[in-house]
Design brief:
about 120 residues, four-stranded antiparallel beta sheet, 4 strands
C-alpha cells in the first residue's frame, strides 16, 4: 500500500498522483481522524482499509495515553510507532518460524513419498 498524508480540510475530495508500477494513476484522498486531527490520506488501498488502519492507529494512541503520563502528541505518536514496530518485528519473526517449519515438513513429506 502506497500512502501519502496531507493536511487538507476534512471531506476534501482531492486526488493525488501516485505511481503504480510504471503507470501514473490518481488516488482519491480519504478523510480520517487521528488524535482529534483531521487528515486526508491518499492511498492505493480502498477507503475502508485506510479508515480501518487510521482507527487502529487512533485506538493504539488512546491506549497509550490511558496508560502513561505522556500528553505530548509527538511523544504519543512515537510511542505508538514503537509499539507498531515491535508488533511488526514479532510477527515477522513468527512468520519466518512458520515458513521454516513448513519447509522442514515439506522436506520430510518429500522424503517419505520418495521412500527415503
Amino acid at each position: 500500500m502506497r500512502t501519502s498524508v496531507t493536511t487538507f480540510g476534512a471531506g476534501s475530495k482531492k486526488f493525488f498522483p501516485a505511481l503504480k508500477g510504471s503507470t501514473l494513476v490518481e488516488v482519491k484522498g480519504v478523510s480520517v481522524q487521528i488524535m482529534g486531527q483531521s487528515l486526508v490520506v491518499a492511498s492505493d488501498a480502498g477507503d475502508e482499509w485506510v479508515r480501518s488502519v487510521a482507527e487502529t492507529v487512533d485506538e493504539k494512541i488512546k491506549d497509550i495515553r490511558a496508560g502513561t503520563q505522556t500528553v505530548n502528541s509527538v511523544n504519543l505518536a512515537i510511542l505508538a510507532a514503537l509499539n507498531f514496530a515491535d508488533e511488526l518485528e514479532r510477527l515477522r519473526h513468527e512468520h519466518q518460524e512458520l515458513v521454516d517449519r513448513i519447509a522442514a515438513m515439506n522436506k520430510r513429506l518429500s522424503a517419505a513419498i520418495d521412500g527415503e
